[in-house]
Amino acid sequence: MFKKKIENISSSVPEFIATLTEERESTWENVDIEKYLRDQGFLYKKISKKYWKLLCIQDVIRRKYKMPLRKAFKLMIDGGKDIVI
Length: 85
What we know:
The chain is an all-alpha fold. It contains 4 helices and no strands. The longest helix is centred in the middle third of the chain and has 15 residues, at 33-47. It is elongated and about 55 Å long. The relative contact order is 0.15.
């Protein structure tokens, strides 16, 4: 009796749900990277007022942005300084 209940449940699950297609363009190339870095600095300061600069350094090192590390870090710091605490 228990085996029949399991068989009925498994047969009611559809095998095909949807088809995914890549019909849209990537918007990442259109992003203003400087604004993105400032926003990241702002976000990291909101996350941790004490360790936000370390989060910025970690982000710059882990993600290789198409600019020098110092410039990316400076943009993040500038974004974090915009917050009035």
